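Q: Structure tokens for this one, please.
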Amino acid sequence: MVSPSALLKQIHVGAVVLSLAGFFARGLGSFAHGAWISSRAARRYRDSVDTVLLVSAIALAYVLGVSPLAHPWLAAKIVGLLAYIVLGVVALRADLPLPARLAAWLAALGVFGYIVSVALTKDPLGFLR
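A: Here is the predicted structure, written as tokens:
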């Protein structure tokens, strides 16, 4: 039998993969002026994956008894998440110049990698160490 924390971790990691795939695809679609990125299906995909990601993260933190106040690596992930969101919004804004959007998209992907490295190492510096 799988423990609740192991199941939550599997759900969370799966949602991380789906979130990255969706952001990567939306970025490419945005750069190619794809109308599909603003479709109802694309929005539902994004919202569903992000909801599962957030709920599983909160549930996992609760089950494991970890807090961002007591675990600096978790606080670093949250700060990284905020940076990723801001960069992602800039990257997908059609009214901005393509070079700025592309730079924001690449930076968001880098921040995503940082967040994953923090999660894997439980070190606030992640791959920056």
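A few notes: The first helix runs from residue 4 to 31. The radius of gyration is 16 Å.
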